[in-house]
Amino acid sequence: MKIDAAAAAEALQAEIRRQIGRVLKKSGAVIGISGGIDSSVCAALCARALGPGRVVGIMMPETDSSPESERLARVLSDKFGFETLKEDISGGLAGLGCYQRRDEAIRMVFPEYGEGWKNKITIPTNILEKETFNYFNLTVENPGGEVFTERMPLKAYLQIVAASNLKQRLRMTTLYYHAEKRNYAVVGTGNKDEHMQGFFVKYGDGGADLKPIAHLFKIQVYQVAEAIGVPKEIIKRTPTTDTYSFEVTQEEFFFGLDFYTMDMLWHAMENNVPSAEAAEALGLTVSQVERGYANIKRKVMATEYLRMAPLEVGEAK
Amino acid sequence: MATIDLDTTRKELKAFILETFLFGDDSEAFGNADSFMEKGIIDSTGVLELVSFLEQNYGITVGDEEMIPANLDSVDNLAAYVQRKAG
After folding, report:
1. Residue B71 maps to which CATH number?
2. Number of domains in chain B
3. CATH number of the domain located at residue range(s) A5-94+161-306 in this protein
4. At B1, is the pLDDT very low, low, confident or very high (cuts 50, 70, 90)?
5. Which of A58, A91, A131, A161 is most deeply buried (CB count within 10 A of its CB)?
6. What was the pLDDT predicted at A121?
7. What angle do CA A140, A141, A144 make, to 5 degrees?
8. Model ipTM?
9. Is the distance from CB of A227 to CB of A44 less than 8 angstroms?
10. Which structural domain, as residue segments, surrounds residue B54?
11. How many A/B residue pairs have CB atoms within 8 Å?
12. Domain-by-domain residue ranges, chain A?
């Protein structure tokens, strides 16, 4: 799992130049930057590959975003010298009914939910302890600080996700506006964990012209970040979804495992490492390794449609 | 609640799976012991749909700790689970 991160960064930069220039025939890169590790690494790689004058980082906060995201995005752009723009998408989202539709769905579970409350979605995080299907809990906090959690019924879950996905889709639309007006490409920022396990919104943050780190495990993204000098406070930040008003880590929301354990398990599985050997190396039991393998396989399989291009009948001429 | 016949339960559950997830198309037939996940018939959203069906149709409540493949990932497992809960 340890890579030669400096060499990997050089190779990625060459590939970014080739893809944007030769393949896509664009003259620069537009990237949504959130102050998270993945978008920071992509923006820094693009600035190093193309020159900072050919990269624009777009910050797209909305009502539920953490102010920390914007501050860290500015720390990054100061370091690598590329231009940043801020597009507050709250008004657009309100116009699309994002918040109203989401709150209506939350009230299917918590009828008293209203102004001043916070919400988040989580999954079980004990996936190595017990073989379990991923189900989704809705957690809300009232203005008095009381927290309530319920497993979500299908209808509420689907509507909350559909409404929340408007955020990523409006961000994609905004990125393409800025890219097209400059003849630039849109750079997707998902890593391998997100890309292969389906932790992205189809035609939302999944909508991009190139995805330069989609083959890198999260723990390898950290190695590249260190090698190219991404600021420490970005590297040390806990990855969050920055989508729900009640802060939720990516582990709680989607993966159900810490990144180190998940990536090491996945790497072992890909390399056909026997469960007993992986268990010994990771300090886990054989059953835990097997549950981890099964959980990753299930997610990859269940989210295949997210990675598919639109299906066509027959071959297009 | 009246005792539910295991074979009838299997047939009802299989009909629900076929109708809901395969649009009634049984050309990709699956056996009662086949894993829905391994056959690619149901994903995690499908599991929620299945749980709604169980709760509404059989008057049971599926607990968080019961959301496991041993209960929900094949027609046989489902039927046995429903029998235990509703029997």
Report:
1. 1.10.1200.10
2. 1
3. 3.40.50.620
4. very low
5. A58
6. 85
7. 155
8. 0.80
9. no
10. 6-86
11. 44
12. 5-94+161-306, 95-160
Please indicate if any CB of chain A lies within 8 Å of the CB of B47.
Answer: yes
pLDDT, tens digit (0-9, with 9 covering 90-100), for A139-182: 999 999 999 999 888 899 999 999 999 999 999 999 999 999 99
Task: Kindly list the residues from chain A whose CB atom is less than 8 angstroms away from the CB atom of residue B69.
Answer: 131, 133
**Which residues, other chains included, contact A226 with Cβ-Cβ below 8 Å and sequence gap of 6+?**
A5, A235
* Interface residue B43 vs chain A (CB under 8 A): yes
The model carries a pTM of 0.88
> Which uninterrupted H or E stretch holds A92?
helix A90-96
- Indicate whether B1 belongs to any domain: no
**Cβ atoms of residues A37 and A239 within 8 Å:** yes
Residues in A closer than 8 angstroms to B77, CB to CB, are none
pLDDT in tens, B43-62: 878 888 999 999 999 999 99
A147-151 and A137-141 beta bridge pairing: antiparallel
Distance CA A98, CA A89 (A): 11
Contact criterion met (CB < 8 Å) for B44 and A158:
no
Is residue A205 predicted with pLDDT exceeding 80?
A: yes
Contact A125, A257 (CB under 8 A): yes
> CB contact, 8 Å: B59 with chain A?
no
A130 contact B CB<8A: yes
Two structure tokens written together for A283: 């300090």
